[in-house]
Amino acid sequence: MLNAILSISLLALAFGLLLGYSAIRFRVEGDPLVERIDAILPQTQCGQCGFPGCRPYAEAIAADSAEINRCPPGGETAMLALADLLGRDPVPLDGEAAEEAEPVLAVIAEQECIGCTLCIQACPVDAILGAAKQMHTVIASECTGCGLCLPPCPVECIRLEPLKVDTGSWRWPFPTTPHDQMKAG
């Protein structure tokens, strides 16, 4: 019995050392640019950019196969940060992203909510709070306005409302240069 325990322990130690050495020797380094781009993106995994998540979008940006202006939840702030990181010129938000760039917030009609929890499961940033068979509510500071909570709601009690402009969300418009005015006119 003692011989069996000793031999299994030695085998486990040998395999552990082999796996540890292999992990260090054959380690694959990630692209540091992709890591930095991914850190700027909002991590909502909403797919509004045309990619299944923020990481694939970051990889596409790093490979120059996607523009920096396709992230509605990140909006203008993320686009400007990406432009600064990559040394590119800022560009307006892309087509659908520009339409959705107006900051919106998911709002749940409390009288209609049946507490099914489907919206909680669909929210990628955990901005919806509630329990089964109880009314749900949206944590406004966490909501990115991605709209992923709308389709699963069986009673359609969730709607996206424009975010009220206050001193915290108001932004100065970009200044125009004479060159921009000549191109427009």
TrEMBL record:
Binding site for [4Fe-4S] cluster 3: C123, C143, C146, C149
Keywords per UniProt: 4Fe-4S, Cell inner membrane, Cell membrane, Electron transport, Iron, Iron-sulfur, Membrane, Metal-binding, Repeat, Translocase, Transport
Major localisation: membrane
SUPFAM superfamilies (UniProt xref): 4Fe-4S ferredoxins (SSF54862)
Start and end residues of each 4Fe-4S ferredoxin-type domain: 104-133, 134-163
Cellular compartments annotated: Cell inner membrane
GO-annotated biological processes: electron transport chain
Textual note on the cofactor: Binds 3 [4Fe-4S] clusters.
GO molecular function, a single term: 4 iron, 4 sulfur cluster binding
Keyword Iron included in the entry's annotation: yes
Annotated residues for binding of [4Fe-4S] cluster 2: C113, C116, C119, C153
Gene Ontology cellular-component terms listed: plasma membrane
Family matches, as Gene3D superfamilies: 3.30.70.20, Electron transport complex subunit B, putative Fe-S cluster
Annotated PROSITE patterns: 4FE4S, 4FE4S_FER_1, 4FE4S_FER_2
Class in the EC hierarchy, top level: translocase
Binding site for [4Fe-4S] cluster 1: C46, C49, C54, C71
UniProt domain 4Fe-4S: residue ranges: 29-88
Functional note: Part of a membrane-bound complex that couples electron transfer with translocation of ions across the membrane.
Subunit architecture: The complex is composed of six subunits: RnfA, RnfB, RnfC, RnfD, RnfE and RnfG.
Entry similarity comment: Belongs to the 4Fe4S bacterial-type ferredoxin family. RnfB subfamily.
Official protein name in the record: Ion-translocating oxidoreductase complex subunit B
